[in-house]
Specification:
Cobalt-precorrin-4 Transmethylase, domain 1; Rossmann fold
Length: about 300
């Protein structure tokens, strides 16, 4: 029987910020009678369902009497000051699970504002983290752009502008916007706020995809970094798939003899990786599973 080769990305499963948020939520659930979240703690429907099975509640479903006994866990992507102030008046305990790397980006925004600079933010406008960064910029915000295509819609930028990126943006997107600003003679003040873990995964996925005939990026479609990982993989492999449900692997047209790469978004739990491997074994038989070659610089 022909063996199917499977290459695993170097970094799989939760990133450090998401893992911290999940562990702290589990600790809160073990020690407090009512634990609720204001929003999705992480962008993975299956993992949120697991946490709800352990007792995590949605804040909007609680009565006033229940709120008086509730511990609220805030999402890894950041929470605005207004949101935290409202919670401080209504619940006895708030656990801030904002990723330290996201907090560092927010601090960079505030430093630029403190230096008297206008701030341009590169990010998804409807993302919680982007709103967190926008709040830090306040009246100094000159715009939010998702890609270089959005730059033409901005009003005239000041000749000297601070730039901060949402932490899960790609290096390529940041570089293309910096290139546009250079062409338009904007003096940019920037210290990169891109998450090192996300950048490492993106580089890893590029190398993985180049060595494979198909790539599965495990995660959730609601996760921006997962969608970007699929985009990175698709530049190097024509068969790149976002897999949110392991059962869907059966319908992807994978065959014995394929070299299949497996990567994941930063909100993907470890059990999703095991499930995908189990489905591959059921569908294709014997697998030869190994770690990918070292990622490219």
């Amino acid at each position: 029987m022909q063996t199917t080769k499977v290459l695993l990305a170097t970094d799989l499963g939760f990133c450090s910020g998401v893992r911290r948020a999940v562990l702290e939520t589990e600790r809160s659930l073990a020690h407090h009678s009512i634990v609720a979240s204001t929003d999705a703690l992480l962008h993975n429907v299956r993992e949120m369902s697991r946490l709800r099975s352990l007792g995590l509640r949605s804040l909007e479903t609680l009565s006033r009497e229940q709120l008086a006994e509730t511990t609220v866990v805030l999402p890894a992507h950041g929470s605005t000051s207004e949101e935290r102030a409202i919670l401080a008046r209504s619940v006895p305990r708030v656990v801030d699970l904002t990723c330290p790397i996201v907090n560092a980006a927010r601090q960079r925004v505030e430093e630029l504002v403190g230096a008297g600079l206008p701030v341009l933010i590169v990010g998804d406008g409807d993302h919680r983290e982007t709103r967190y960064l926008m709040e830090g910029a306040g009246d100094s915000l000159v715009g939010v752009v998702g890609s270089v295509d959005d730059m033409e819609h901005l009003l005239r930028l000041p000749s000297r502008t601070g730039l901060v990126c949402q932490t899960t943006q790609t290096r390529e997107n940041r570089d293309s916007i910096l290139g546009w600003l250079a062409v338009h003679h904007v003096d940019v003040v920037e210290t990169s706020t891109l998450c090192p873990e996300v950048l490492r995964r993106q580089s890893s996925i590029a190398g993985l995809a180049a060595a494979c005939s198909a790539v599965l990026v495990l995660g959730d479609a609601s996760s921006a970094n997962t969608r970007r990982s699929v985009l990175v993989a698709s530049r190097h492999c024509s068969r790149a798939f976002l897999v949110s449900d392991a059962a869907s692997v059966r319908s992807l047209g994978l065959v014995r003899g394929d070299t299949i790469g497996i990567a994941s978004g930063t909100s993907c739990p470890d059990y999703a990786i095991r499930d995908a491997l189990d489905v591959l074994r059921e569908s294709l038989g014997r697998l030869m599973v190994s770690k990918e070659p070292q990622p490219r610089d």
